[in-house]
Amino acid sequence: MPGGGLGVLTTLVAILAVAYGVVFLALYGLQRAMIFKPDRSTPSRQAVGLDVMRDVVLHTADGLELGAWYSPPQPGRPTVLYFHGNAGNRGWLAHKAGPYLADGYGLLLPDYRGYGGNPGVPTEDGLRADARAAVEFLRSEGAEPARDVIYHGESLGSGVAAWLASVEPPRALVMEAAFTSVPALAARQYPWLPTRVAVRDRFTSIRRVRSITVPTLFVHGVNDGLVPVDHARSLFQASAARVKDLHILPGGLHADLYDHGADRLILQWLSGLQDY
After folding, report:
1. pLDDT at position 140, please?
2. Percentages helix, strand, coil for the chain, rounded to the nearest 5?
3. Domain assignments of the chain as residue spans, ordered by start
4. How do residues 143-161 score in pLDDT, each as one tens digit?
5. DSSP state at residue 81
6. Cβ atoms of residues 256 and 221 within 8 Å
7. d(CA 231, CA 198)
8. Mean pLDDT of the chain
């Protein structure tokens, strides 16, 4: 190859390498803004029709006070600890809260740090501390997780719920629109980047479920374009739960599973665990 052509090729490779590096560094720096999309406004129970619940404060080990909503269970019923997805806040969950409350379940709707008027900045470690604070609040109300509490994790919240279940086993676990890990999701969206080593907040549920033996339900939409249904299948196969079920809802997307009967399915599944 003539010297001039080699020089042009070298220059082109250098430009592409610099461009790749710039894009990688930009995505690395912005990754938390891409994962966590909080609605920072403070929600109102009355505005969303959840007057039956009450405002409570969760105290984290690192000194934060987090707003949450709580309703105690009817006699003989467990309490659901609900971890929502990466966007919004607890004020977005009225349609998720209603079926549980109507069926007599207790319900705790915590907001993560940085969400729903709460102080702090969301990170994986931070959300773990928030989850611990939620469990300690329920203990202060007389509930023991292994006997009295069901964890329900939705999307990003499934990563929180799976981690918590691996260190503080509940009575049962519901995984809605769950993913195997954030690096696996990132690799699908950016296959040309080394996402599996660059992601900081990993939420590796595929590893967690291998040690979770409590009854576990996986619910997923067959047409989920954000978290492909193969994630649910992989989690189900890896799960060590003695009782486990996978329900793939026809027509379901990522955030509309209750429009496809997920609420009825979940309540029916939980009712079948009464003698467990």
Report:
1. 98
2. 45, 20, 35
3. 36-271
4. 999 999 999 999 999 999 9
5. E
6. yes
7. 20
8. 91
